[in-house]
Amino acid sequence: MNIEPVVYDFRTRLRWTSQKKGVLSCDGKPDLHVACAPEFGGHPQVWTPEDMFVGSVELCTMTTFLYLAEKMHLKIKSYNSDAVGKAKMSEGTLRYVKIEIRPVVK
Length: 106
What we know:
It is built from one helix and five strands, in the order E-E-E-H-E-E. By secondary structure, it is of the alpha+beta class. It has a three-stranded antiparallel beta sheet, with no helix packed on it. The chain has a two-stranded antiparallel ribbon with strand order 4-5. The model has no long low-confidence stretch (mean pLDDT 96).
């Protein structure tokens, strides 16, 4: 029996608007204004790839926790977290060396 893995497609579109900014789109979801980080000549009030990377790890942690809590029949009143990603420039490459997530679960 040959079982093929399920393949999922996640599609986005990116449109450059000005300077180092753009709009990230996905069907059925609100647009997200994006730019490079201020540390690299970007814009401080706009989501950056670095923000989204740390946020993705934080979101994955929350959804995994909620999945496991549901499987264990735990009743959750609230889940909040803060996350800090530490990135280091080394030999011309930005590398994350640590992502710390601090959840508070009730």
